Task: inverse folding
């Protein structure tokens, strides 16, 4: 290939490398880390499947397996073979079986359940940062933030639903409100903290 | 560090104290440069700070690769996040003598392929030459035309050719590393990259003639 054509591929490569829309928002890294820390560990089976790459079934094998599963299901439910006698219905009164109760619980918002809430502070010069608030009794040791190389500090904490007032403690000395959050408006100690509204899930 | 007492620790405006720098936060790892090989091992041993550094270093490259693979920012961010979650939970399977980037990119490339396939199944009409909305590139009109044409051609390449081209020419990986990422043989990879280059050359030569 000619030198001119090679220069063309070189130009394509520069265009794709410098794509401005591929420059990430720094806060994405902090959000991603929070998602990683909060993600449930996969089951042993899932990890085993991931590790061993189960071979793909052919269409015939898949059909046979599906047929066997259906047959087993019909037998279990009594569609094929001897049908088990139905349970007698309760004559009257409220149903106290498990299913209605579980279903109701699953669809009700749990006001008391803590909600994982992420805090981010951009401070490249800080050596350590803690989150303080009513939820940790304003303890500077309870909730340290993790520093990323970019100078962004982040932590995710489970908080009860409602209005939470908080601040950042920088290097164990400077107490500062969150520059990205609304001020609390109640300057109990001479300066306002920040406020976050935590909504129940 | 004990409980904070406001009387002893007066509030100070952080900006006055020189905090909250406004410089760029991201540290892009240049293609071809390697990360500290002890970082993955420390992360594997449970060091969260080391894992956070890995994410910080490799996020920009991962996002760029995913964006070029899937064609839109939202899916690219999803693919990258899924990838790092999987990497974190499977660090125990990472071999101590292996290189981290090919391992990461293998998972990322799989996620991107799955997303593209999923979108294909759920998208009824994709017209030839349509480019997903990625925001307009900045620059002069000529530069914009060039960039848009590059994106357009990239979007029409077969996925396996696009993947091989991006890993070789944008991420600067050796063919042996691309083979580890894709599970494809070296000669097949060379052919994929060559075919992608041929298409780009043929179609972009026309753009250059018009400039």
Result:
């Amino acid at each position: 290939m000619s030198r001119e054509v090679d220069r063309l591929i070189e130009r394509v490569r520069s265009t794709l490398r410098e794509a401005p829309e591929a420059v990430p928002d720094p806060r994405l890294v902090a959000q991603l880390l929070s998602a990683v820390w909060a993600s449930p560990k996969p089951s042993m089976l899932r990890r085993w499947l991931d590790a061993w790459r189960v071979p793909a079934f052919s269409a015939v094998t898949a059909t046979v397996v599906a047929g066997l599963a259906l047959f087993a299901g019909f037998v279990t439910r009594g569609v094929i073979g001897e049908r088990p006698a139905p349970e007698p219905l309760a004559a009257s009164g409220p149903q106290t079986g498990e299913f209605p109760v579980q279903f109701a619980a699953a669809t009700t918002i749990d006001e008391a359940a803590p909600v994982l809430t992420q805090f981010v502070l951009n401070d490249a010069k800080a050596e350590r940062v803690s989150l303080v608030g009513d939820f940790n009794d304003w303890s500077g040791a309870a909730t340290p933030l993790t520093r990323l190389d970019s100078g962004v500090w982040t932590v995710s904490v489970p908080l009860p639903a409602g209005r939470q007032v908080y601040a950042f403690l920088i290097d164990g000395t400077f107490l500062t409100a969150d520059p990205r959050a609304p001020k609390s408006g109640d300057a109990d100690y001479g300066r306002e903290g920040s406020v976050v509204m935590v909504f129940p899930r | 560090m004990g409980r904070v007492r406001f009387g002893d620790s007066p509030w100070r405006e952080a900006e006055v104290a020189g905090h909250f720098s406004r410089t760029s936060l991201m540290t892009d790892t240049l293609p071809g440069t390697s990360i500290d090989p002890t970082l993955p091992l420390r992360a594997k041993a449970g060091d969260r700070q080391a894992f956070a550094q890995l994410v910080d270093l490799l996020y920009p490259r991962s996002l760029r690769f995913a964006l070029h693979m899937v064609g839109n920012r939202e899916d690219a961010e999803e693919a990258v996040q899924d990838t790092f979650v999987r990497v974190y939970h499977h660090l125990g399977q990472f071999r101590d003598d292996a290189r981290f980037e090919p391992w990461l990119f293998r998972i990322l490339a799989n996620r991107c392929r799955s997303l593209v396939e999923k979108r294909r199944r759920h998208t009824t009409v994709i017209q030839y030459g349509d480019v997903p909305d990625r925001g307009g590139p900045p620059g002069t009109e000529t530069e914009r035309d060039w960039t848009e044409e590059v994106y357009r051609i990239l979007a029409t390449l077969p996925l396996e050719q696009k993947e091989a081209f991006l890993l070789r020419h944008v991420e600067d990986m050796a063919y042996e590393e691309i083979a580890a990422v894709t599970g494809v043989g070296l000669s097949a990879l060379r052919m994929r990259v060559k075919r992608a280059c041929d298409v780009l050359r043929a179609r972009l030569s026309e753009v250059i003639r018009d400039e």
Observations:
- Residues 59-77 of chain A form the longest helix (19 residues).
- Chain A touches chain B through 60 residues (CB under 8 Å).
- The mean pLDDT of chain A is 71.
